[in-house]
Specification:
By secondary structure, this protein is of the alpha+beta class. The protein is built from 14 helices and 10 strands. The chain has a 5-stranded mixed beta sheet with strand order 1-2-8-5-3, covered by helices on one side. A 3-stranded antiparallel beta sheet has the order 4-10-9. The two termini are about 15 Å apart.
Length: about 400
């Protein structure tokens, strides 16, 4: 299978957010029309709310960097109109905060995720990868690459960094999956989030009595966060630290298997790996429904008046296919593509704090996987792989492979 093979046929309805994919590796086709004809467009979202979709690379960056667009979009009550007041973000949920509050949390965490520290982690990550490959090699018959390889790697790493017992992974993985499920009810999401927060809160109590060399112990000892803030930060890092990278590893593997010429180039030249990781991040962009912002005041955006309170969806996946930023076949996977800044990790002050860790994990995982299993292939037809269209973070629900 190639990256251009359609899986479904979906027509975009004008005035709505593009949703259905025609290719498992590409954003909905409707975004191409929006970029070319109406890049800042008013829409009705699937939940019935009205707002705007921004689809061009430059405009997405503008929205994400402009402090007049706030990250918190929680209304006082679900379903409230755009002019209703915003509710405070949950404690510790700094990705939904702006200004001084966001800066306070970000400063506490930035030192924990520096490029230097993540590079020092590389040998430990490579050891984890090697151990997972050894276990995978001992399995009989086809294996699910997601469960056997892609998910354990970032889960083990983030557990080690945070100081979370890996044997508790079933509980936090189930709850994080519920939080990200599009069809989950508000009560289900709140219950799952509360369970994750309570788990971190109890763990933090233990860290206070017996601190170790991990991020959670460091946050406890800093005494700069309330119990509720600590629980919120910890559960957010735990969720983001394994869900995103696991799906990038699995989906990236599927994508490379579906682009054999690109995979052959990567296998013949290991120096391509750094660029390959960036190209996969750009091409796949697993934050599939973009980042939502709220206009904190009336904003003029390229001739469009966006009123205070309006929701604006900045489409990362569409921006990453914009020919003005990626002029040479932006809809193709090209591991030789000269590096140009992409939007896979967002942009501005809310740009993903764990992006360097994700790069280290992806590079280690993909390099070793294809070295260990040179005949790796899908164990089912590509159109039978269950995709995560129903989740905020895109990827696969499972990836049966053999070799």
């Amino acid at each position: 299978m190639t990256g251009n093979q359609p899986t479904t046929s979906t027509r975009h309805t004008p005035g709505t957010q593009p949703m259905g994919r025609t290719c498992p590796f590409s954003p909905p086709e409707g975004y191409r029309t929006l970029r070319e004809e109406d890049p800042i467009t008013p829409v009705t979202f699937p939940d019935g709310a009205k707002g705007w979709v921004v689809s061009r690379y430059a405009d997405v960056r503008t929205v994400l960097a402009d402090p007049r667009f706030g990250a918190n979009r929680r209304r006082v009550r679900p379903g409230d109109a755009a002019d209703a007041p915003l509710a405070p973000p949950p404690p510790g949920m700094f990705i939904m905060m702006d200004g001084p509050e966001h800066t306070r949390f970000r400063r506490l965490l930035t030192g924990q995720f520096t490029v230097r520290r993540m590079q020092k982690l590389a040998p430990a990550v490579e050891q984890i990868v090697a151990e997972q490959l050894e276990a995978m090699a001992g399995a009989e018959g086809p294996v699910d690459l997601l469960q056997a390889f892609a998910l354990p790697i970032p889960s083990l790493v983030i557990c080690e960094l945070l100081g979370v017992p890996y044997e508790d992974r079933a509980e936090f993985q189930e709850n994080s999956s519920m939080v990200l499920r599009l069809e989950a009810s508000r009560d289900e999401v709140m219950q799952a989030q509360a369970a994750m927060n309570e788990y971190i809160r109890q763990l933090a109590v233990a860290k206070w009595a017996h601190p170790t060399d991990d991020i959670l112990s460091g946050l406890v000892q800093s005494e700069q966060l309330t119990d509720e803030e600590l629980a919120g930060v910890g559960s957010l890092l735990l969720l983001a630290g394994h869900e995103t990278t696991a799906n990038m590893i699995a989906l990236g593997t599927m994508c490379l298997l579906g682009n054999p010429e690109q995979l052959a180039a990567l296998r013949s030249d290991s120096a391509l790996m750094d660029g390959a990781v960036e190209e996969l991040l750009r091409y796949l962009t697993i934050i599939q429904y973009g980042l939502r912002r709220v206009a904190l005041e009336d904003v003029e955006l390229d001739g469009h008046r966006i009123e205070a309170g309006a929701t604006v969806l900045a489409s990362l996946s569409s921006g990453n296919r914009d020919a003005t930023q990626f002029p040479d076949r932006p809809d193709a996977l090209d591991l030789h593509r000269p590096y140009r800044t992409h939007l896979a990790f967002g942009h501005g002050v809310h740009q993903c704090i764990g992006q360097q860790l994700a790069r280290v994990e992806m590079k280690a995982a993909l390099s070793a996987l294809f070295d260990r299993f040179p005949t790796l292939r899908l164990a089912v037809p590509a159109d039978q792989v269950p995709m995560r269209d129903d989740m905020l973070i895109y990827g696969v629900h499972e990836l049966p492979v053999t070799w």
